[in-house]
Amino acid sequence: MKIFLNIPPGPFGPYSSVAIAGGFLFISGQIPFDEERGEVIDGTLYEQTLKTLQNLSKVLEKAGSGMEKLLALRVYVTDLSKADEVNRAFKNFLKEPYPSREFIGVSALPAGAMIEIAGIALA
Predict the structure, then answer these.
(1) pLDDT, tens digit, 9 for 90 and up, residues 85-100
(2) Domain boundaries, the chain
(3) For residue 32, is the peptide bond before it cis, meaning its omega torsion is within 30 degrees of 0?
């Protein structure tokens, strides 16, 4: 059985926020979007990473899972030289054992965000 959910903030295009199949959640990329303001937050990469992780956590919870069930993350950033800010935010937000992670540099992200995080978690 497959289940597809649209959980705010997003999606911002023709895709689902979360797909659930085979006991796994496949979470579409989250950005540091502030629902109340209707835009990406201003701030450092560290601050944007924390907001993105908060959004990811919200999506997981609404889908019946949680951050502790994360298995893998795909992290896209516009400046690889600031990896230390992302790592600091991850250490402050996540608990060990940490999920596996890809860290990918890109030229641009939606709405001017500096970071986007997608992932896979247990349902």
Answers:
(1) 999 999 999 999 999 9
(2) 2-122
(3) no
> Counting Cβ atoms within 10 Å, is residue 86 exposed (0-12), middle (13-18) or buried (19+)?
buried
Residue from 68, 66, 47 nearest 58 by CA: 66
Split at pLDDT 50, 70, 90, the class of 7 is confident
CA distance 1 to 37: 36
- The reported pTM is 0.94
Backbone angles phi, psi at 51, to 5 degrees: -65, -40
Whether omega for the bond prior to residue 9 falls within 30 degrees of 0, making it cis, is yes
Which residue in 121, 52, 33, 60 sits closest to 93, CA to CA?
52
Query: What distance in Å separates the CA atoms of residue 89 and residue 5, rounded to the nearest whole number?
Result: 27
**Domain 2-122: homologous superfamily in CATH:** RutC-like (3.30.1330.40)
Q: Are 27 and 59 in contact (CB under 8 A)?
A: yes
In 3D space, the residue among 111, 120, 115 whose CA is nearest the CA of residue 49 turns out to be 115
